[in-house]
Design a protein that fits this description.
The complex is a heterodimer of chains A (314) and B (252).
Chain A lengths: L1 H15 L12 H26 L8 H26 L5 H9 L16 H22 L5 H29 L3 H20 L11 H6 L7 H19 L9 E3 L4 E3 L5 H11 L3 H14 L1 H20 L1
Antiparallel strand pairs in A: 1-2
Helix pairs in contact in A: 2-3, 3-6, 5-6, 5-7, 5-9, 6-7
Chain B lengths: L2 H23 L9 H29 L5 H6 L10 H4 L5 H22 L5 H29 L3 H14 L11 H8 L6 H18 L22 H15 L6
Classes of the chains: A mainly alpha (314), B mainly alpha (252).
Chain lengths: 314, 252
């Protein structure tokens, strides 16, 4: 009995001292579960996120933008890989995690259920979506679980490059021809509120947040991060000469930040439930890739088995 | 044909082959059979796209008419592209993509090793840089051909079908015309007939190890040296070029 009390004390003191919890350390079962859910959702988001961006590789309008986008989508895949590996340290296999994704049981960031309709969307995704993701990810570099924190440190380095790449596309469009500028404004109009939703529901309606903050898995609340994002993005939009599609957006001198409209949370819950514009397509594309690849994975396994037998026989 | 004209066409042949191949390979990105392989194939696509970019820049410079590498990539028509027929073929299943890539990688390794000795310094430099990348590609795709050939019955059937399908586009890799004649004299071009038996020997070894047989009666297809393509190229270009062509004055 005293042992159980000791390990829990040890765990809590790590959190207090801002030390990392490592895979071999004792941890509360709910902490482990929360992490598996959060890290795997994050990994799935990277993998699903490859689809809307991959959608434009073949149509990127210059050689340079094609190279940058291809490299970017590859980075997202790499991030997925780091994160799956981090989740595996918590005693779950990649097959189990992928199974949950493919059956629709596991969630991923709802932003990727919106379509990339024009080239400007690739700019907007980099600028806004990656910009919002970075807010979250910078915070997660200081998360309490060691492998997650280390994965986030690697990911953050690449993400800030992605965001710059997106902003660069927006710059070229915004300072380009009339048609390009319209394309940029249209993309901002469509991506603004879905991006705001990425931080999750308001703190008062976010049941998992409080515990996550106690465990130091999260370090800032949804509303705090959303405010930071708005404050930073308004200036960038002004520089581009684009208008953020929110009539209530206004500087508030008292709080030294912007007031802004809440996104439509009903839409948010609908997309989470599977009713977004691309939920069906995203899941189908993932499932198709996985089932089309089944014979490849089987061949690789059979080949490895034969090699092993040959070595044993020799 | 002047040396400059020949050099322009020769460089286009190489750049277009890389560009169209990269375009095909990147169709797999986010759809690979598993994550690690998705990343590996995208990596190959990126290397090849990088080669295309360097070569197109050089082609634009060689032409000397003020066109940029993007102009060459996005504002030429079907009858002005000189990529080989093999690279424009559809990806098919993963076996077909891997087999196509394996045939090309083995060709490219021999080709770029020779081109690295070219009297043209830019081509030699691009080739030298490419060799490192291609050495890795050869290892990757050759090992997959082996794995498919000796994996399961299904994978063996699929890779054999891929070979049956694609072999007819391989003779063309070694075709030479006036462009080659002009540049061979200047020690700029690679003698393709000289590397053909080396390529055949390497490929035979890979196929033998994988228990694969060359199809017996094959009529070899040709045309790309005169910019005559299969029907696939038009669709690739339509997709790749539509946006710059819709906004011809725009910068991206």
């Amino acid at each position: 009995m005293s042992n159980a009390v000791d390990v829990e004390k040890n765990f809590n003191s790590k959190l207090e001292k801002n030390d990392f919890v490592e895979p071999k350390d004792w941890m509360p079962e709910n902490y482990r579960k929360h992490l598996i859910r959060q890290i795997s959702q994050h990994a799935h988001s990277e993998i699903i996120g490859m689809l809307p961006e991959g959608n434009w590789i073949s149509r990127a309008p210059s050689l340079r933008s094609k190279m940058v986008l291809l490299a970017k989508v590859q980075d997202e895949g790499g991030h997925g890989l780091y994160l799956y590996t981090a989740a595996e340290t918590l005693g779950i296999s990649r097959d189990e995690l992928l199974g949950a994704l493919h059956t629709g049981k596991a969630k991923y960031s709802s932003i990727f259920n919106y379509p990339t309709l024009t080239w400007a969307d690739i700019g907007a995704v980099g600028w806004l979506v990656d910009g919002a993701a970075i807010m979250n990810q910078v915070m997660l570099q200081r998360t309490s679980y060691g492998p997650y924190s280390r994965a986030m440190i690697r990911i953050c380095k690449e993400e800030s490059f992605h965001q710059r790449q997106g902003y660069e596309i927006m710059c070229r469009l915004s300072f380009g021809t009339e048609a390009q500028k319209e394309m940029a404004q249209d993309a901002l109009n469509r991506w603004w509120f879905p991006t705001m939703m990425m931080f999750g529901p308001p703190d008062k309606d976010s049941p998992n947040s409080e515990q996550a903050i106690k465990w130091r898995i999260k370090r800032e609340t949804n509303d705090e991060l959303r405010q930071k994002f708005v404050d930073r993005t308004v200036e960038q939009a002004e520089f581009l000469g684009l208008t953020i599609p929110d009539k209530n957006l206004k500087w508030n001198e008292t709080k030294k930040g912007y007031d802004f409209s809440e996104p439509n949370w009903e839409e948010f819950y609908n997309v989470i439930k599977g009713n977004g514009p691309c939920n069906k397509e995203r899941l189908e594309a993932r499932n198709k890739a996985h089932s089309d690849g089944a014979w490849v994975r089987e061949a690789a396994m059979a080949y490895a088995e034969k090699k092993k037998e040959n070595i044993l026989a020799a | 044909m002047t040396t400059q004209e020949a050099l322009f066409k020769y460089t286009l042949r190489l750049s277009d082959t890389s560009l169209i191949l990269a375009q095909r390979l990147s169709e797999w990105t986010s759809k690979g059979p598993f994550l690690e392989e998705d990343l590996a194939l995208t990596n190959i696509a990126l290397d090849i796209l990088g080669q295309a970019n360097s070569l197109l820049e050089y082609a634009a410079k060689t032409e000397g008419k003020g066109r940029s590498s993007d102009d060459l990539a996005f504002f030429r028509n079907e009858r002005e592209f000189y990529n080989t027929l093999l690279v424009e073929q559809p990806n098919g299943d993963y076996a077909q993509t891997i087999l196509r890539q394996c045939l090309i990688d083995n060709f490219d390794l021999l080709f770029y090793q020779e081109l690295a000795k070219s009297k043209d310094e830019t081509l030699a430099a691009i080739a030298a840089k490419s060799i490192k990348e291609i050495t890795y590609h050869v290892r990757h795709t050759s090992s997959w051909v082996d794995r498919f050939g000796n994996g399961t019955e299904e994978s063996h059937t699929r890779i054999q079908n891929a070979l049956n399908e694609l072999w007819r586009f391989t003779d063309e890799l070694f075709e030479m015309n006036e462009v080659d004649a002009v540049l061979l004299k200047e020690k700029i071009a690679v003698d393709l007939q000289a590397i053909k038996p080396l390529w055949k020997k390497q490929v035979d070894a890979i196929l033998e190890k994988a228990n694969l047989k060359l199809p017996e009666t094959v009529f070899m297809q040709t045309g790309s040296r005169n910019a005559k393509h299969t029907e696939h190229l038009g669709y690739i270009l339509a997709e790749m070029q539509y946006l710059p062509r819709m906004h011809p004055t725009a910068k991206w």
